[in-house]
Structures are given as C-alpha cells and as structure tokens.
Amino acid sequence: MNKKISAVRIRLKRAYERPSAEDGARVLIDRLWPRGVKKKAAKIDQWAKDIAPSTELRKWFGHEPARWEEFRRRYTAELHQHGEQLDNLRELARSGAITLVYAAHDESRNDAVVLRDVLLEL
Fold this sequence. Notes:
By secondary structure, the chain is an alpha/beta fold. The chain has five helices and four strands.
C-alpha cells in the first residue's frame, strides 16, 4: 500500500516524558534503553532498535549540532537499508497514531526527527 501518511499520525516524544492516551502505539527507536527509565512506566509497545543509527554513526554524531546535516544524510542512507522495518512502521502509522520515543536531549536534532521524515516519504 502506498497511501501517504499524514504527518499528524507520527509523533515524537522523549522517553522521559509521561506516556499519554494520544500517543497511540509507542515505538522506542534507540538502540540502547534510555537510562533511568523503567520498562513498565515507559509503556513501550515495540522496540525498533534495528533501525536505530549504527553504533559507529551514533558515536560519531555525539549530538554535535555542527554534524547534524551529515548525520541526517548518513542515517537516512542507513534507514533505506531497512525497508521491511520501515514498511512495518508505515503500516502501523496508517492504522493509527504512533509515537517515536527517543532519549536524546535535543528535540530538533535527533534520530527520531530523521526517521519521521523518512517514514513520511513516499
């Protein structure tokens, strides 16, 4: 199915924020479990660690703003190697709201931002 996904269907939320009913399916997209977050409290429906940035890319980026554009480019290339997982997340978003849960402090420059943009591509 190639039906375009509405941007309102894919939300982003830090793992340290409280889950809410509006979150829909909560998908943790980090390779590592967020430090200090209890699994029961996080209410994660799916842990998609296979599509998280590679360890090498994550360490290289180090959340340095100057490296953001290159991180976006490299991570997008990595994501396109995981077509089946992307398709699964797209189908989940077509059936209702999903929230991509991440641990990064920077809300505008993180892996969830890149993943959302890739999921919204057609």
